[in-house]
Amino acid sequence: MSLTHLKPSLASLALLAAAAGVAAAPPITLEVDARDVTRAIQHAHLVIPVHPGPLTLAYPKWIPGEHAPDGPITQLVSLEISAGGTSLPWRRDPLDAFLFRVEVPRGAAMLDVRFDYLSPPKAFADGYGRTPNVTPHLLILPLNHLVLYPYDAAADAVSIRAEVHLPAGWKFDGALHPERVEGDTLFLPVVSLSTLVDSPILAGEYFRTVPLSEGAGSTRISIAADAPGDLAVSEATLAGLRRLVPEAVALFGPGHYREYVWLVALGNDLNQNGLEHHESTDIRDNEALFTDPARLFEHRTVPHEYVHSWNGKYRRPVGLATRNYQQPMVDDLLWVYEGMTRYL
Could you report the per-residue pLDDT of 248-287, keeping only the tens digit for each? Predict the structure, then answer.
């Protein structure tokens, strides 16, 4: 039957109207104040579009790449929820500490949500939220640490606009380019929650960016360090990194990313670890990663996380392709996700 002969039903018109209403919904706004690096406290302020009635807000629990329900809920403090200037009581779910229940009053269209995130001074367990992400000279912002979202929403369907206040004079980098920068405030574009969580920001007092490849799918490495001398990278190391890009493309095919950046934070209070993202990676290590010849073997984290952009991000085991950050991940193909990446 020709489409021109189809008549829309009342049900289809209702669905179209509902879809238009959803599309017109304003994004969540997120304001992050990351300037208090001395006390390692980050302040989050969200404005969340809502409808009157019961609402459950979720703090991200299952973080892509961490393979466990280890969202840093223990580091969230001082939660306040209000509507129209009136404070609202909230209740933590008795069975799931990552969920917060609140009753949205009649006439309210927005919730005002504020909380603080405390970066631990020392690592107390595995997982990026259980290790420091701030020193007096640098910070790494995994933005899943700083959001709440409606529990039943798909991460790809939640739109969010973020602005981030950095310490005065600090440089920064990340896969998500700001629409504009005013002073030390970054104004990020409206993106899905999944894109925001997949786009950490690195900033630092001592900072260096080195381009590795140019043109479509360009790559670069940005380094923030606690000491300026640790920004040094030998020409031999840079030459190896520059070879990595065409070698990976020859092995896997053309890059599927717009551009790619290694975000490397170097500080002796940071844990040695790497967390992959689609267009970037969050690598943390000791200060002398690039300046101590004995640490050469540890450079393997750089290609490992890069390979994950293909194996794990562009191509993802079905059990890890979840609807949002509360749905449990199934890691029965972890041997492919991690094992084959290490082999490659």
Answer: 889 888 778 999 999 999 999 998 889 999 999 999 999 9
Whether residue 9 lies inside any domain: the answer is no
On average, the pLDDT of the chain sits at 89
Structural domains counted in the chain? 2
Instruction: Give the CA distances from residue 199 to residues 48, 174, 218, in Å, rounded to whole numbers and listed in that order.
Output: 20, 6, 17
Do 192 and 65 belong to one domain?
yes
Residue 292 token pair: 């101590």
271 in Cβ contact with 66 (< 8 Å): no
Which positions ≥6 away from 72 have C-beta within 8 Å? Answer: 117, 127, 128, 129, 130, 145
Residues 115 and 188 in one domain: yes
Residue type, 250: A
Give the range of the structural domain holding residue 288, as residue numbers without chain letter.
206-343
Q: Are 42 and 141 in contact (CB under 8 A)?
A: yes
